């Protein structure tokens, strides 16, 4: 997960304020996702971010590929094209979703385990995180055998390390600190 640039965050905050005023939070989220998906296609990304392609041609490409974008979204695209900032769209979408989740009381937990979690274990972990954080938790899971066992959970700046690797590292630091190692 790449760090969101401050410029993208400012655009997202402005868009979120407008979407909130219009009571169209989900429509903006859907349009931003569609644009981010388009930019994830290498050929489209190359054409839309190339300085050799004029902004009018880029706009007509977006209109052809994504019909039905709301008028304010189209205005945002024009603004980004003229400022040569279209490459920020994926980060704007990411920052917008963070704001939307925050508004709805949803915490996104990035969970790393040594082996894949079954449905029952995922549900149990989600319930525990819901209680611990006092929010509804949306989990993104990842498997990393290097943690040996246990679980590592990252929610924003909060890190909960219950991995075997983490415990061994803590033990190693204690032993080094006492001079036993």
Describe, in plain words, how this protein is organized in 3D:
With about 180 residues, this protein is α+β, with helices and mostly antiparallel strands. It folds into two domains: about 5-100, N-terminal domain of the delta subunit of the F1F0-ATP synthase (Peroxidase, domain 1), CATH 1.10.520.20; about 105-180, Glutaredoxin. It has helices at about 5-20, 25-40, 40-50, 55-65, 70-80, 90-105, 120-135, 165-180; strands at about 105-115, 135-145, 150-155, 160. A four-stranded mixed beta sheet has the order 2-1-3-4. The protein is elongated and about 70 Å long. The model has no long low-confidence stretch (mean pLDDT about 90).
What characteristics describe this protein?
181 residues, alpha+beta, Peroxidase, domain 1, Glutaredoxin, 2 domains, four-stranded mixed sheet, 4 strands, 60% helix
Please provide the ordered H/E string of secondary-structure elements.
HHHHHHEHEEEH
The CATH fourth-level homologous superfamily of the largest domain:
N-terminal domain of the delta subunit of the F1F0-ATP synthase
N- to C-terminal separation? 36 Å
The total beta strand count reads 4
Largest sheet: 4 strands, mixed
| Overall pLDDT score | 92
**Beta-strand fraction estimate:** 5-15%
CATH top level assignment of the largest domain: Mainly Alpha
What percent of the residues sit in helical stretches (DSSP H or I)? 55-70%
Q: Give the uncertain stretches in residue-range form.
A: none
Please compute the radius of gyration using only Cα atoms: 21 Å
Strand-pairing-aware structural class = alpha+beta
- Report the total helices: 8
CATH architecture of the largest domain: Orthogonal Bundle
- Side by side, the strands of the main sheet go 2-1-3-4
CATH topology of the largest domain: Peroxidase, domain 1
Task: State the domain count.
Answer: 2
Note the overall shape: elongated
């Amino acid at each position: 997960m790449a760090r969101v640039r401050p410029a993208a965050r400012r655009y997202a905050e402005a868009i979120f304020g407008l979407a909130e005023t219009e009571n169209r939070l989900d429509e903006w989220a859907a349009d931003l996702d569609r644009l981010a998906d388009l930019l994830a296609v290498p050929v489209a990304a190359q054409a839309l971010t190339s300085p050799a392609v004029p902004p009018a041609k880029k706009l007509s490409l977006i209109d052809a590929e994504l019909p039905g974008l709301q008028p304010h979204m189209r205005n945002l695209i024009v603004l980004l094209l003229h400022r040569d900032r279209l490459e920020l769209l994926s980060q704007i979408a990411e920052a917008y979703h963070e704001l939307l989740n925050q508004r709805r009381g949803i915490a996104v937990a990035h969970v790393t385990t040594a082996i894949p979690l079954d449905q029952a274990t995922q549900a149990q972990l989600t319930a525990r995180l819901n209680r611990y954080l006092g929010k509804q938790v949306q989990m993104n899971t990842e498997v990393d055998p290097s943690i040996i066992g246990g679980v590592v959970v990252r929610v924003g700046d909060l890190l909960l390390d219950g991995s075997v690797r983490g415990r061994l590292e803590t033990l190693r630091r204690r032993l080094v600190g006492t001079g036993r190692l």
